[in-house]
Design goal:
alpha+beta
Length: about 140
Amino acid sequence: MSEPEYDVLDSEQACRAFTRETLAELKDAGAEMEEPHLVEHHLFSPNFEKLEKAVVELAKKGYEVEDADEVEMEDGSEGFCCDVMAESPLTQDALNEQTDLIISLVKKFDIEYDGWGTYLPEIDGDEDDFEDDETIVH
């Protein structure tokens, strides 16, 4: 069975399908689904100001925001990426609530959403045991 590709998560429907499939994989991997996990949402924009406006709104809603990084894309273009994080159980309802909010801001500020990931300390060990370039995100 081939893995579906999600080039751009730009609708609630696409996010919910991505979340449903990711949660099934995490459950199969042995994740403790009802326990709170740090969930990282990945945002991108070629325009720093647009990205900044979106993450300020998320920070006001309680999300932890990492500094944006300048990145070069495969096609040579440049842009900015940023992770916003929240503690959450790994449930469809909890993740839908988060992704619905993010998708509304993606549309409002014309930025891109590249999905979410999480650490599984119950499988990978304590997330503090990993260096930045060694973290395991599922």
